[in-house]
Specification:
Layout (H helix, E strand, L loop, with lengths): L3 E7 L2 H17 L4 E7 L4 H8 L2 E5 L9 H25 L3 E7 L2 H10 L3 E6 L6 H6 L5 E4 L12 E4 L6 H4 L8 H6 L3 E5 L7 H14 L4 E6 L5 H11 L4 E4 L5 H7 L2 E4 L3 H10 L2 E4 L8 H10 L5 E2 L7 H13 L2 H11 L6 H15 L1
Parallel strand pairs: 1-2, 1-4, 2-3, 4-5, 5-6, 6-7, 8-9, 8-11, 9-10, 11-12, 12-13
Helix pairs in contact: 1-2, 1-15, 3-4, 8-9, 8-13
């Protein structure tokens, strides 16, 4: 019988992209393997998973943190319905194994699988494990880690440090040794701005505030705004008269965007950092301000290796961001150094290592 594996999780590209990378590796290793994804309705996975060639099943879910009381009540009701939907999918599909990268769709599915005696394994992407994954780990046989230091968050659990699974197309966006010197000297300086799959209003505001100062520079910008802030940001570019820009709600062809960029300005999610390392991109990381400070820890781990520039959002203004980028424009050697150092963080076999381990788990069951 072919292996049947369910991939659960989502709510953002940062959760689904590593799952797709592992699924692609499983498909390469075992073309007969049966793979399906489970995520929440209305999520970005409804576009990304079918595009990658996989079947997607959806359930009701939602996140409780940061919600007002009326919305929390509604979310609890959704989670209750979603739990029974998860049970129904598992009973109908009968996967051999469930693999999750977290996210608010992952937790109920993993818990449901555990109740039915189905083996579960998860991926922890952040340097400091989140509360959801620490809770899910109680129902999992093994936790795959991006950072070795993360194992302290999973006492008593089998862990395996593999790095961060990344899609092959992102690795292929890296400049080779022959073209890199030409690319670094090329004009204009190309900047790719994004705030994760859902956009980042804080980064959007900072970049729009920097535009008047950047008009004098030979820059080209590709700016992913997120759906909700797209019109506001687009109007900001128009008001300033900055025409050398492409402003999109979402960029699907990330590999092409990375390939063209000299500098990336983005959040410090684990998936974003992994893709920067895979593509060898110099970056200014602006971590999301949050209670658990996940992204701040991620950014600091990279900056401590001399592999990126990082600033906290409250410490930045449009003017100070403009000055920082102008320094890179004047002297690109620092960007070259960041590109060189961040490449060293990439583990090209991460997706394959996880895929091999999951297939062994199914075979040994």
């Amino acid at each position: 019988m072919p292996a049947k594996i369910a991939f659960a999780g989502g709510g953002s590209g940062g959760h689904v992209y590593p799952l797709i990378a592992v699924a692609d590796s499983i498909r390469a290793l075992d073309p007969d393997a049966l793979i399906f994804f489970v995520s929440t309705r209305g999520s970005i996975e409804e576009r990304l998973v079918p595009k990658a060639g996989y079947r997607l099943l959806t359930v009701l879910s939602g996140k409780l943190s940061g919600q007002a009381i009326p919305r929390k009540i509604l979310t609890v009701l959704k989670l209750a319905v979603g739990f029974f939907q998860c049970l129904g999918i598992l009973i109908r599909e009968r996967p051999d194994l469930v693999f999750s990268a977290g996210g608010y769709a992952g937790a109920p599915f993993v818990f449901s699988a555990w109740l039915l005696g189905i083996r579960c394994e998860i991926l922890e992407q952040n340097r400091v494990p989140g509360m959801a994954n620490r809770w899910m780990a109680k129902f999992c046989r093994r936790v795959f880690l991006n950072f070795d230091e993360s194992k302290e968050g999973f006492p008593g659990r089998e862990t395996l440090t593999v790095g961060h699974p990344c899609r092959r197309e992102i690795e292929d966006a890296r400049w080779d040794e022959a073209e890199a010197p030409v690319r670094w000297r090329a004009e204009p300086l190309r900047i790719f701005v994004f705030g994760g799959s859902q956009g980042a209003v804080g980064i959007n505001r900072l970049v729009v505030g920097a535009l008047p100062h950047w008009k004098k520079l030979n820059l080209e910008i590709l700016h992913q705004t997120g759906q909700l802030d797209h019109e506001n940001v687009k109007q900001g570019y128009e008001r300033v008269g900055f025409s050398r820009a492409r402003v999109e709600p979402y960029v699907y062809e990330m590999a092409a965007a990375y390939r063209e960029a000299h500098l990336v300005i983005c959040r410090a999610g684990a998936s974003s950092i992994a893709e920067l390392a895979a593509a060898g991109k110099a970056a200014l990381l602006i971590p999301l301000v949050s209670r658990d400070r996940h992204q701040e820890h991620n950014a600091r781990a990279v900056a401590d290796r001399g592999a990126c520039e990082t600033r906290l959002q409250p410490a930045l203004t449009g003017e100070s961001l403009a000055a920082l980028v102008e320094g890179f424009y004047t002297d690109r050697s620092k960007l070259e150094a960041y590109s060189r150092e961040i490449r060293k963080l990439h583990r090209p076999q991460a997706a394959r290592t996880v895929a091999e381990a999951l297939l062994r788990s199914v075979q040994n069951a």
